[in-house]
Write a structure and sequence with these properties.
eight-stranded mixed β-sheet
Length: about 280
């Protein structure tokens, strides 16, 4: 309903632009994280989402996703928080895929009422993967004896320093199938009428944004600003919602020196694993 008082205000003083908050989700999806390495999880994302959806005059919230995936639990938690806030605040959600919205990154993208991708974006990878190494032969050559004592015959399942057992692999694959089915059900619940009938859609394969459009994984090609201007008018203003940061870019609270030291150690251990996740998609 138009505000009658607004007509009394001279046009040059009236607010004519539409402000759309933008939340940028960049990095591997994992619990925890550090000041030196960006990661996506519910704890880090929830405050940004709360702030974005609290903007009263905004008809929508835009979310930019750039992630190779990671934790299926954190992916679903972030997805669900976005949908809960969208319904609570009655706001539309527009998701833009940047370089990569794959695996858990694509799960989060499904929270959008509309998914936008660049023609060269990588999208999809609807599947579950587990990886590791086996060191049985190595420790044997070094003359090292592995000693494991458990209460429970399966407590040392998939121990990398012991020979792999077929029953352990079978159990892991059963678990993966459960997680995979949850992923499939989520995608279908959000995009059922838009998905193409393709045998490899849920096989773990990933595609370009152009191919993703043909398969129904995304709704249109383009960039976030252009799409929002086409939808809400040429005077749309994008307002990036960011976390408040203190000295050295570290979030407020805690000692800066200790945080940096801990972050450096954590980053050294996680960099290779994160690099491998991005490299799976040629990035």
């Amino acid at each position: 309903m138009p505000n009658p008082i607004a007509k009394l205000i001279p046009k040059r003083f009236r607010k004519t632009e539409t402000v759309i908050p933008v939340v940028r989700l960049n990095g591997v999806i994992m619990a925890g994280g550090s000041p030196l390495r960006s990661s996506i999880n519910l704890a880090s994302v929830a405050p940004l989402l709360d702030k974005a959806f609290a903007m009263k005059d905004s008809p929508a919230v835009a979310i930019s996703v750039n992630s190779p995936g990671g934790s299926p639990v954190q992916s679903r938690l972030v997805f669900q928080r976005i949908r809960d806030l969208a319904e609570e605040k009655n706001k539309r959600v527009v998701v833009a895929c940047e370089d990569l919205a794959a695996s858990g990154g694509y799960m989060i993208a499904c929270a959008g009422d509309e998914i936008v991708a660049d023609p060269s974006s990588v999208v999809g990878s609807i599947g579950v993967v587990s990886g590791g190494f086996g060191f049985v032969d190595l420790i044997a050559r070094l003359g090292i004896e592995r000693r494991v004592h458990t209460a429970g015959q399966n407590k040392a399942t998939l121990d990398p320093f012991r020979p792999e057992r077929p029953e352990d692999v079978e159990h892991l694959k059963a678990l993966q199938l459960d997680v995979h089915q949850t992923f499939i059900d989520l995608v279908r619940s959000r995009r059922a009428d838009r998905l193409a009938d393709h045998p490899d859609l849920f096989s773990g394969l990933f595609w370009s944004g152009t191919r993703g459009l043909e398969l129904g994984l995304v709704d249109r090609l383009g960039d976030l600003r252009t799409v929002l201007r086409e939808t809400y008018g040429p005077k749309v203003k994008l307002a990036v919602v960011q976390q408040k940061r203190g000295l050295f870019g570290i979030g407020r609270g805690g000692g800066a020196a200790a945080s940096l030291a801990n972050a450096a150690v954590d980053a050294a251990f996680t960099a290779a694993e994160e690099r491998a996740l991005w490299a799976r998609y040629g990035l």
